[in-house]
Amino acid sequence: FEDPRALVGCETRVTPPVLRLADQNAYAAFSTRSRQHFRRRFLEGADGRAFSYADVDRITGQMARLLARLRVRKGDRVAGLLEKSPEAIMLYLAVARAGAVYMPLATALREPELDYVLRDATTRVAICAPEHAATLERLGAGGGVERILTLDTVGSGSFCDEFRDHDGDFDAVPCTGRDANAPICIVTWTA
Fold first, then answer.
1. What are phi and psi of 60, to 5 degrees?
2. Is the preceding omega at residue 16 within 30 degrees of 0, hence cis?
3. Mean pLDDT per segment of 10 residues, for the chain of length 191 residues?
């Protein structure tokens, strides 16, 4: 049936094709679906900046390439202590594209809670709003965080300064196989 409304009253159900996430990186699944909408708008920031699917593909590739240069590998943790912004969403996708695990940290967490999470998760890189940088520098130095970068709500900060220098062509890291880091499950939560 070409028209799903024609199925009303029928016992047969038509379902869209299923992407087998177990067979691919979460970003690869997103990218597979987004290619048909490449020129369409994907998201818009509160400040009016708009990003197409093509923009997201290029920017997440640049971000993933920077993460790889920072020695983020498959299964590594990347923490984000950020306010909502288009770049924060793209960071999540870039971390998945790099095969790493994104850890969103609630901006309401106090210093002892942040310290515990960063140490317990063995965080390799943390990206935070500029106002949290001093706290994370203090905590990260003792907690094994190798690099702390900043990202604000309008696309500025040390993270943006560095990723914009990179090529956006980056193949999603496969997240299947029999090694100790596969498969990777991405879990997000909100308080």
1. -65, -30
2. no
3. 42 46 70 84 92 95 97 94 95 94 92 90 93 91 86 95 91 70 51 48
DSSP output for 86-116:
HHHHHHHHHHHHTT-EEEE--TT--HHHHHH
Query: Token pair 């987004």 is at which residue?
Result: 34
* Cis check: omega of the bond before 86, within 30 degrees of 0: no
Return the amino acid letter for 189. Answer: W
The model's pTM is 0.81
Residue pair 81/107 in contact (Cβ under 8 Å)? The answer is: yes
* pLDDT recorded at residue 1: 34
Q: For residue 91, what are the CA distances in angstroms to 6, 13, 15, 166?
A: 41, 37, 31, 15
Per-residue b/e over 23-34, b at no fewer than 16 CB within 10 Å? ebbbbbbbbeeb
N- to C-terminal Cα separation, the chain: 43
Q: How does strand 50-52 pair with strand 77-81?
A: unpaired
- What is the SS3 assignment for 65? helix
Query: In this predicted structure, what is the pLDDT of residue 61?
Result: 96
